[in-house]
From TrEMBL:
Name of the protein in its database record: L-serine deaminase
Keywords: Lyase, Pyridoxal phosphate
GO biological process: isoleucine biosynthetic process; L-serine catabolic process; L-threonine catabolic process
InterPro entries linked: Ser/Thr_Dehydratase (IPR050147), TrpB-like_PALP (IPR001926), TrpB-like_PALP_sf (IPR036052)
Top-rank taxon, per record: Eukaryota
Annotated Pfam families: PALP (PF00291)
Tryptophan synthase beta chain-like PALP domain sequence ranges: 2-183
Family matches, as SUPFAM superfamilies: Tryptophan synthase beta subunit-like PLP-dependent enzymes (SSF53686)
Cofactor(s) the protein requires to work: pyridoxal 5'-phosphate
Length: 232
């Protein structure tokens, strides 16, 4: 999903290594050879500051918040959010959520320094950082009230819950739009969403229209409501 989205913005994506640590090593060598600047996505000070704006938005939208749960990978997100929230609302609890398949932040806190941990495949691929950032650790550690590690089963159930909450009613809404256009729907089937969006569903509908103009009217109607519409 992330690769596809980056490429849609015109970014050149190079895949190297089987984990983020090896990818980082390649990126640093590549940058040195090409005269490019390497920006650490979870430990550069400016990145941490930028991620802190999420904390500001949370306080803006929920001023009486008691606790904030933050996913932890390299540590940059929780560092930025913790600084913002603890500065303005020190009584608010900051709780880090880490996958047990890559609990590098927990290990770093125990050792008092970033250390490499063994990782295994995880649904939370964005959190699979085997060594946390030094800036992130030093910034976040004093401000975190608790770190919780979660299993893959819990992550999977959480994703399922999100899908159950976000998708209901979508098919009914679609068929209603089509019915209002005067089209007779013979068969409708739905398939899992695309690989880039787990919150979408692909729907195939066989319908009967009056003529080509009616088809064009239906296509225009659907394109007003949905991003990806193909008429065959």
């Amino acid at each position: 999903m992330k690769i596809s989205l980056c490429r849609s913005y015109g970014v050149t994506v190079i895949l190297k290594g089987n984990n983020i640590a090896k990818a980082k090593d390649y990126a640093m060598r590549f940058g040195k050879e090409k005269g490019l600047k390497y920006i650490n996505g979870y430990d550069a000070p400016d990145i941490l500051a930028g991620q802190g704006t999420i904390g500001l938005e949370i306080l803006e939208q929920v001023p009486d918040v008691d606790a904030v749960l933050v996913p932890v990978g390299g540590g940059g997100l929780i560092a930025g959010v913790a600084v913002a929230i603890k500065t303005l609302k020190p009584e608010c609890h900051i709780i880090g959520i880490e996958t047990e398949t890559c609990a590098s932040f927990t290990a770093a806190i125990k050792e008092g320094r970033p250390i490499a941990v063994e990782t295994s495949s995880t649904l939370a691929d964005g959190l699979a950082v085997p060594t946390v950032g030094g800036n992130s650790l030093k910034t976040a550690a004093p401000m975190i009230d608790q770190i919780i590690t979660v299993s893959e089963e819990v992550i999977a159930l959480s994703i399922l819950r999100l899908i159950e909450v976000e998708r209901p009613g979508g098919i009914a809404e679609l068929t209603t739009h089509i019915a209002h256009s005067g089209v007779d729907q013979d068969i409708s089937t739905n398939e899992p969403g695309s690989s880039t969006d787990v919150f979408s569903v692909k729907v195939k509908i066989i319908a009967e229209t009056r003529d080509r103009t009616h088809v064009q009217e239906l296509e225009a109607l659907l394109k007003e409501k949905y991003k990806n519409v193909t008429i065959l």
